[in-house]
Amino acid sequence: MNAKKLAGEKAIEYVKDGMHLGLGTGSTVYWSLVKLGELIRKGLDIKGVPTSKNTEKLSMELGIPLVSLSSINELDLTIDGADEASTNFELIKGGGGALLREKMVASISKRFIIVIDETKYVTSLGQFPLPVEIVQFGWEVTCNQISKLGCKPKLRMENNAPFITDNKNYIVDCYFEKIQDTKEVNNTLNMIPGVVENGLFVKMADVIVIGGSNGNVNTLLRSKL
Ligand SMILES: O=C[C@H](O)[C@H](O)[C@H](O)COP(=O)(O)O
C-alpha cells in the first residue's frame, strides 16, 4: 500500500466547489494534486496558490487553475505535507526547502490539513533536522548565532553547491538533541538577523491525515479548546 497516496487522496474530501486552496509541496501532497486534477477535469471549480515552483509547474501540467498569493487575502483550505507531525499538532517542514512560502500560505488559510505517512507521526519533534531559511549574505555568522540555541546547523548542499531556495536563499538543517519548547525556538530563531523563516509550524495544523502501510487512513482533528 502506498501510504502517502492514501493520505494525499483522502485530504481531497475536504475540497468543495468554489474554494481557494493553498497547494503544498512534496511527494505526499503530489497525490492530492493528481486527485484534484482528476476532479477538475470532471467539473470541480477551484483555484490554487502554489507553495513552490515545483508545485506551480506540476499544477499547470495537471490543469489546476492558479492565482498568485498577492491577489488573495484568505484561503479556504491548504493541503500540505510535513517531515514530522507531533501528537500535539506541531510540525517540522522544509525538507524540500519550501518552508517560507508554505508558512506564508498556511498563515492565511482558514483550515490547514497535513498529509503524512505513519512514519512521520511522533510524540515530540526533533528527530528530523529543523530546516531554517537564511539569507546568503554572511551565512556563517547567521549559522553561528543559530548554534547558540543548542543545535548543530549544517548548510544544505545539492550537487556539491549550496541548495538555493525558490526565494534565492540558503537552508541550514539544524540538529537538535530535542526541541523542548517549540514556541520559544520558533520565535528565537526568527529574531536572529539573517534568518528568513524556520520550519517549525506551531499551532497551525487543524487536521492531520495519516496514511498507513496496512491501507488504513487515520484523520485527526485538533481540538480548538
Ligand atoms: O519543503 C518541503 C515541504 O515542507 C514538504 O511538505 C515536506 O518536506 C514533506 O514532503 P514529503 O511529503 O515529500 O515527505
Structural notes for this entry:
26% of the residues lie in helices and 28% in strands. By secondary structure, the protein is of the alpha/beta class. It folds into 2 domains: 3-121 and 202-214, Rossmann fold (3-Layer(aba) Sandwich); 130-197, ACT domain (Alpha-Beta Plaits, 2-Layer Sandwich). The strands form 4 sheets. The protein has a 6-stranded mixed beta sheet, with helices on both faces. β4 and β5 form a beta hairpin. α1 (3-10) crosses α2. It is globular, with a radius of gyration of 17 Å. The model has no long low-confidence stretch (mean pLDDT 97). Bound molecules: ribose-5-phosphate (R5P).
Give a brief rundown of this model.
The chain is an alpha/beta fold and 225 residues long. It has helices at 3-10, 29-41, 53-62, 99-107, 139-147, 182-191, and strands at residues 20-23, 47-50, 77-80, 84-86, 91-92, 112-117, 121-122, 130-134, 151-155, 157-158, 161-162, 170-176, 195-198, 200-201, 207-211, 217-221.
Spatial order of the strands in the main sheet? 2-1-3-6-15-16
Average pLDDT number? 97
What is the H-and-E element order? HEHEHEEEHEEEHEEEEHEEEE
CATH topology of the largest domain: Rossmann fold
- Domains counted in the coordinates: how many? 2
SS-based structural class? alpha/beta
Oligomer: single chain
- What is the overall number of helices? 6
Mind telling me which CATH architecture of the largest domain this is? 3-Layer(aba) Sandwich
What is the terminal separation in angstroms? 35 Å
Shape: globular
Q: What is Rg?
A: 17 Å
